[in-house]
Amino acid sequence: MVDPQRCRAYRQFLEGIDPRGISLLDDLAAPGIHYHDPFVDARGVAAVKRVFRQMFEDVDEPRYTVTHCAVDGDTCFLRWHFTCRPKTIRRGQPWVCDGVTEIRFDADGRVTEHVEHWDAGEQVYEKIPVLRALIRWTKRRVSGWPP
Question: Does any domain span residue 145?
Answer without folding.
Answer: no
